[in-house]
Each structure stands twice: as C-alpha cells, then as structure tokens.
Amino acid sequence: MTDPGAAPTLVVGLGCQRGCPVSTLRALLDQALQAHKIGLHQITALASIDLKRDEPGLIELAAQLALPLMYFSREQLAGYEPRLSHRSEIAFERTGCYGIAESAALALAEQLAQAPATLLISRQKYAQATLALACAT
Hints:
The structure is a single chain. With about 140 residues, this protein is of the alpha/beta class. It is built from five helices and five strands, in the order βαβαβαααββ. Strands 3-2-1-5-4 form a five-stranded mixed β-sheet. It is globular. The model has no long low-confidence stretch (mean pLDDT about 95).
C-alpha cells in the first residue's frame, strides 16, 4: 500500500549521442522541467541504457545534480516498447531499443516505487539528446 502523502517518484530518462556535452543534457532537462513546471528538487533519479554507462555527459550531469544514475539493458527496456510515444528506428539500429529515454524512465520509476509508472513528459529531442520523465506513486 502506498502512502498517500508520499511524494511521487519522478525519474528522468536520457538518451544521447556519443560525446554529447553535459551542457546540452542540462539545457534539455532545464527546458523540459520548466515547460512542465516541475522543480529540479522533485527529481528522484536519472536513467539510461547500459550502453551509455561510460558516457561522460551523463555521468557529469548526475554528479552536478547529485542524483543516482541507473542503467538498464536492452532486454530490460524492450518490455516497455508498447508504451512508447515514439519509436526510433535509428535508436533501434544502434541499441536494439526503440526508445531509450522513455523506456529507461518508466523502468526506473517502476523499480524505485514498486508501482506502475506513466510518462509525464514524453520524448523530447534537443540537439544530440533525448529526454523523458516518468512518474510513479
């Protein structure tokens, strides 16, 4: 049973091209949160695909925000495909996953909250990066 007074679990899913600078990721995050009137302090964690485990921009963003950054395998993310708002053939060719940002956000929000998650912000694309925000209560 969930605590009705508990804050929702908000997870940002991120996908990016190799070498994407942290400034690009931060600009995308700030823009998306501002547009949806969500405070940075409300974010619980960041998520991506395990192929990005050594991506400096993602690691630096998590450090700047003092947030955990969790990774999921292509197999773990595949189960979220029916719930994606957008399917990217390019992402699939490169990673075996049709939507990294949305899938990773949903996967981590559900894992942390032990409850179903929904997308509050569907895939946003900016320069070399994609972002999505999932919420579980």
